Amino acid sequence: MRRSLVVAAALGASVVSVVPCLAEGTGVGQASAIDAVIDDAIAGRRIVGAVVLVAYRGHVVYRRAAGYADRERGVAMRDNTIFRFASLSKPLVSAAAMRLVEERKIGLDDPVTRWLPSFQPRLPDGSVPTITIRQLLTHTAGLSYGFAEPDDGPYRKAGVSDGLDDPGVSLDENLRRIASVPLSYAPGQRWAYSMSLDVLGAALASATGKPLPQVVQQQITGPLWMNDTGFHARSASRLATPYQDGAPEPVRMASEAAVPVGGGVLRYTPERALDAHAYPSGGAGMVGTAPDFMRFLLAIRAGGGSVLKPQTVAQMMRDQVGTAAQTQGPGWGFGYGWAVLDDPALVPTPQAKGTIQWGGAYGHTWFFDPVNDIAVVALTNTAVEGMSGEFPRELRDAVYRAFAAGPGAGAGASPASASAR
Fold first, then answer.
1. Is the fold of 28-85+223-260+268-404 the same as that of 93-218?
2. Per its UniProt record, what InterPro entries does this chain match (predicted)?
3. What is the average pLDDT value for the chain, to the nearest integer?
């Protein structure tokens, strides 16, 4: 997997676990495989805590909080624990942008300079290309991420914040720093994970004359009653303590943390989530709960619910960049806000063609498979195992064994995606 993408409690009786909540018609046997994956990850000291929700055919059929929100203080994880979303922010900001497109307040092919006149990064030859809203949404704008570069890379040298750290830098200053670095490629020429959602967030604020948090609240989180989701945590007591991978167990993050990922390093300032003055990073700055994010996914499943038109959601779920981008490995392209699985035959997954998914650098994963009609939200407080370790893959496979062939299928059920290929 490309470098830019590779972005536990004690053993035995000391593992805290909330008994899973099962929907009517969901058997204990179906839940047991999912329970086992969560229990093994916590007992094996790979993750500290997690909140996992599974929806099948539009209904939440599995819901569990397990492990610790704060291991050292003995605070159990709860299903209303607030997490630092990191890149779970991106789908929400992308959805807000698409709603503004529906309202004709912005256009996908608008040049970014219409809304941010001073944002004019250059190509290596000194020319200034046009960057569009569409290219920001699809990470094809020529931008990059500091964590994907070595320590002496251009974004690091320019002091660009990835939106996870440096709460003291302003959005205007971060945009200036981004624009001071030559583009990695001509806009539209290829895909590279990047700071583009931070730039998009600034454009949305300019286009509406409102701060980005207000835009997202009015367009998406408010109508969906995602009351615990925003750009800073109002309740420190409910905020999960972040941990990073370590041996023999995950290590509590320091006030300034660095976590190797792929060939780069993710830099975190966890207290940013409590700083109301930190700039609202459209790519990494939000906080929220697992139930809130599941509300969003179920709205997407319903064709947009109260926030988007069905044709807009269909456009968002369509691959816009091609599988050559390998946004989650072979077979994966990218839509507006998430990766899109185009060719399941190229990757060992039970997910069907059209599945959308992404993750978050504090230790999160989610996906929605419209063929099998399964949605999963798995938020952990352990970076990066919860995002790109064995846990999310083991959880995914357990969910398909339990539900892909329908309630009562049990372990070993064949996913519908097998016939969909």
1. yes
2. Beta-lactam-related (IPR001466), Beta-lactam/transpept-like (IPR012338), Diverse_Enzym_Activities (IPR050789)
3. 91
